[in-house]
Amino acid sequence: MRVELQGLRVLFVEDESIVAMLTEDMLADLGCEISAIAGTVEDALAAVSQGGFDIALLDINLAGVMVFPVAAALDERGIPFAFASGYGGKGVPPEFTGVPIIGKPFRIDDLAWVLQAALVRNRKKAAGCGEAAVEGG
Amino acid sequence: MNQFCRVDDGQSPGLSALADAPAAIFDAIPSAICVIDIDGRIIRYNHRAKVLWGEAPQPGKCLEALCESCRIYGNGRELSFAETPAARVLQTGVPVAEQELEFELPDGRSVALLVNCEPVRDDEGQLAGAICCFRDITETVRTRSALRRSLQDLEDFFENGAVGLHLVAADGTILRANQAELDLLGYTREEYVGRSIRDFHADEDAIADILARLSRGERLDKYPARLLAKDGSIRHVLITSNANMCNGVFLNSRCFTVDVTAWRQSQVLQAEAERRLAATYEAAPIGIAEVDEKGRLVRLNSAFERIFGYSREELLGLGFQEVVHPEGDTGEDGYREQAAGDDHYAVVTRHKRRDGSEIFIRILSSVVRDETGQVRYGVRIVEDVTERKQTQNRLEESERVSRELLEALPVAIYTTDINGRISFYNEAAVQFAGRRPELGNDKWCVTWRLYDSDGTPMPHEECPMAQTLRHGREMRGLIALAERPDGTRVPFMPFPKLLRNATGEATGAINMLVDMTERKRAEDEQRALIDELNHRVKNTLATVQSIAAQTMRSTPQDFAKNFESRLMALSAAHNLLTRRRWTGVGLGELLDSQLAAHAGDEGRVRLAGPEITLSPRIGVLLGMLIHELATNAAKYGALSRPEGMVRLNWSVAPNEAGRRHLRLAWREHGGPEVAPPSRKGFGTRLLERSVRVDLRGQCDLRFEPAGVQCRLDLPLD
After folding, report:
1. Phi first, then psi: what are they for B237, rounded to 5°?
2. pTM score, two decimals?
């Protein structure tokens, strides 16, 4: 399964450097490429517009600001993403309840799983959207 | 002449003599005469006969023929001619005397005749005919009949009249009595008539008095007496009587006796009933009085006297109003309970008694009218209700106190009746609801709008108070939201409770609305704090995880020592923050704590800068960074030699945009020559990255040969 993650370009959104450094090392160990790092919602949205990444990992709380606008932007573009949170599952808006999430601190296996889950979810969504389009048409 | 004077010595006159007798004699006789022969033919008749017959019969006409158009009655029945005196005499030769006959003429008239008929013989003494003498006695008969009828009527009247009648002689002998008299007493005629009237009177004196008066010629009118009936009972009678006097002599009395026994009985019963009524009236525990059409007292009972403190004599004749309000005013406490027209009303009013004491009386007033609607008299019932009024006053006072108490409480309280209509609310309720409820109109709740704690609208009729009133459920622990007209919402906890009367029946409910704003705020705050704590702990663990991984990667050989050192630096920063409840940390104390191990007393680290407070985020990170710089200086830099030193200066200044920036400079001197490291260590990586990303500042790290120089510029807000 980890084969899938090889070469995956990751947009990593996290506001605490010490924590970020570890996650970056984990991502490198998984064979992923850090295409961009953002510590605030603004920077993250800018990075999303720029593109150039395959998947995003979002810390939910960025110095008190919630990351959900970034999630919405990613959803719009159909880019898979996952949450990493110190808060746990609470406080996630209903539209994102299906998004894969890991709590901090996490192990490298957890990280691999959540990225995997994000890819699966995205594939399902894409298929579902297609079907929905047929139905709704 | 001798022929005519022949005296009858038992023989009938001769027919031939009669036939020859002169007409003058016949006409002189004061009676109608006719002579008939043996065959009944009329031989002679006189003028009177002709008048009676109304015609002069043809010679030789039979008497029968003359009478044949008439119907003849005699002896009480119709007679044939053969039964008439004339015919009978012709048949028998026996005279008929004084026979009354009635002739009914064809024209309907009746004539009564008194007929005498004698046989007439011829010279040989053989029956040769008859001589009839008849007189019109019609009038006489008529009169006699009338008289007889009159007598019969009188007899019948006396005998069969409905009132007892009797005649009594002067000595008291009952001369005559009618059936009613006999029936009254139950005696037979033999037992009564002929006996002394005294025997039948129960009171000797009475009858003696009656007889005496009657004999004096007095008239008695409805004289009461008691008579002895045959069955032994006493009959009460009224005797109306007068005397039949003749020349001042008492012949007999004429008595009418009326039995009034039954009437007397009813009188007695009525009197008894009246006595009972009067006794009840008198003994009644409430005052009863009657007033005339002008309102003056005409009758009153003892209770009435007691209430007002006056005797009957003092009260009778006074006006009722005078008595009730001797000082003229009706008093403020007077009020009408009901006014159903003018005839009946009830009033409770204050009254000042004779002795000055004040009581409360309840007056029930009604009017009795006669058939034409005129007032006959008025009835006034008076009850002393002082005690009741005092109880009522006490009750009202108690209610007032309760109300004041509720009003004074700073928590919203309101009550409703059993149907949910609001009956009371205090001012705190008005504050709470942001509106003034309408008594009697608003139902269930004083609030403007209600919502569940999660925001779902709650109709008033389903609110906890309504649940209590309608279903008896007293819910506790529920939190709801009240929206005021101005839109603000207040969380509150209701405490509805049913109110019951003395018999346990639910009469309404009371509700207390406790404002939960503060509690909710505290709860929200606590929740937020706990979430925050949770987050921080997790982040700290992730940080520690990272520090462990980084330390392992860069200095695996000194992992334990280095890891512990970094951990302690983090902990030191946390400790300082905890002292200020994580509101911030002083830069000075932070630097002291991180440099304490390396600084020593020699003043090898010189600090200079203003005292400022850093946010927890900046504080923790800066603490870590200073720790890295210090650790590096102690291992390879200025602090690894005794003559080496570190200058640490900082300042705060606004940037172009006016935001506060911290400018900090770390300068090492007197250490060994510095060469840029081949590989970036954790500290270097952290400095460069975290200042830029985490703190959104700038970091200028230089490995100058003279010593490491590091400049930081970061916003404080």
Report:
1. -130, 165
2. 0.51
With CB atoms and an 8 Å threshold, state whether A22 touches B550. Answer: yes
Q: Tokens at residue B702, please?
A: 């230089």
User: Cα distance from B716 to chain A (closest Cα, Å)?
Assistant: 14
Query: What's the CA gap between A20 and A33, in Å, rounded?
Result: 14
Cis peptide before A105 (omega within 30 of 0): yes
Q: Chain A interface, mutation test: which of B689, B691, B692, most A Cβ atoms within 10 Å?
A: B689
pLDDT digits (tens, 9 = 90+) for B142-178: 899 899 999 999 999 999 999 999 999 988 899 999 9
Separation between Cα atoms, residue B295 and residue B321, nearest integer Å:
8
Tokens representing residue B539 in the block: 């982040």
Q: What is the pLDDT of residues B352-368, one digit of tens each?
A: 888 888 888 899 988 88
Three-state SS sequence of B506-521: EEEEEEEEEECHHHHH
β-bridge partners, B412? B513
Using a CB–CB cutoff of 8 Å, tell me whether B693 touches chain A: yes
Out of A20, A25, A40, name the one closest to residue B549 (CB).
A25
Give B685's contacts in chain A (Cβ within 8 Å).
21
Residue B307 burial (C-beta neighbours within 10 Å; 0-12, 13-18, 19+): buried
> Helix or strand or coil: residue B288?
strand
- pLDDT digits 0-9 by tens, B438-449: 987 888 999 999
Q: How far is CA B658 from CA B651, B653, B654, in A?
A: 15, 9, 5
**Four-residue CA torsion sign, B488, B489, B490, B494:** positive
Half-sphere exposure of A124 (CA within 13 A, CB side): 8
Residue B617, chain A, CB below 8 Å: the answer is: yes
Nearest CA in chain A to B625: A18
